[in-house]
Fold:
Amino acid sequence: MSWLKFAGNFVRHPTTVGAVAPSSRRLGERMVEGLDLATALTVVELGPGTGPFSEVVLERIGTETRFFAFELDPSFVKLLRARFPQLHVYGESAENLPQRLSDHGVQYADHIICGLPWASLPDDVQDRVFEAILAALPPGGTFRSFGYVHCRPFPKAVRFRKRLEEHFSSVEFSPIVIRNVPPAFVYRCVR
Structure:
């Protein structure tokens, strides 16, 4: 069902839904690979869509971990809230991340998992969201996002990679996840 909902939302909103299908479980596992989610105090997911990464994160976080998500699409917000009642879902822009953390008495997130379609975001929105991410991560905090293999040479993807390299002390790329539509890789960044 999430495939149909996802594809329908992509057709209706191609600039905010950046893919024709939800990410695979394999990509979700690659996104969190090597992260100690069980001891994290706060984990944030940006652009969870129908929740394939959320599901993987929820299987690994500790009982005291706070998990927040930011999703713009109202139908996805409704689906996420029904599917994962333990996930606190904000139906608003990731630009508001620092303020929403502050509302919960939290200054920083230990880990930010990101499914936003960077290549299709307007530059000004990309700038504001990126600044919010930087404001919400302490030194040593991790940021994970992904890119599609075929998009690596696109100007917005190149711009995003350069920005990561300017603002993170470590930027690595995972092996390609072939079992994803389309094949993808993960950016593994440490603040």
